[in-house]
Amino acid sequence: MVFRRRTPLTLPQKLRAFVLPPGGWRRSLTYLRLRLTRISDQPHRVARGIACGMFVGCTPFFGLHLPLAAALAWAFRGNVVAALLGTAVSNPVTIPLMAVLSLDLGRVILGDGLTLPFREIMTAFGQAGDEITRNIEAIFTPAVMHWDKLAQFWHEVFLPYLVGSLGPALGAALLGYWISLPMIEAYHTMRARRREARARNRPESTRDSFTKEN
Questions:
Q1: What is the pLDDT of residues 146-187, one digit of tens each?
Q2: Residues 163 and 157 sit within 8 Å (Cβ to Cβ)
Q3: 140: how many CB neighbours lie within 10 A of its CB?
Q4: Summary mean pLDDT of the chain
Q5: Exposure pattern of 13-45 as b/e (b: 16+ CB <10 Å)?
Q6: Domain residue extents for the chain
Q7: pTM (2 decimals)?
Q8: How far is residue 108's CA from residue 94's CA, in Å, rounded to a whole number?
């Protein structure tokens, strides 16, 4: 491939790049901010898309955050691109905190006081994914499907996580909308003023020729 690295990254290097981006989190956040402010759409639609993305990003639907965020943004008439960017709230730094908090909160709501450390939560998700993959393969092979582990995963991990994540997800969505809307509006106002300033500073002959052409 044309863009393949000459020296492939080792597993520790890949894990480090996943947790710590090569340019640093500051550069990544700056890039994200620029992408959001430069979306050519109405500020309230962009902010609504961000809120939808942040809401989905707090839920346990790992691997489905992007399509779910896009669908939710479409349903609420938000900007889909902003929704996809908003799912960045779910990242290697925030996931451990959100997972433990949501699962503990969900178990309290459902009347189960048990708690799980983050490592066991992620292990449970990985085992559930493997079980689903094997059951799908069993459709086309003589292998037997097994659902007992998935049922246990549903009751002990996924359902409490989902129930406990709804409150933080809604709070994150409202906070994201409340913060992003004035920022995007201010950026659009500043950009409009810059356009007006450039138009006023443009030479008279250039403005006349532009007016005749249009």
A1: 888 888 889 889 999 999 999 999 999 999 999 989 988 888
A2: no
A3: 7
A4: 79
A5: eeeeeeeebeeeeeeeeeeeeeebbebebebbb
A6: 42-187
A7: 0.74
A8: 21
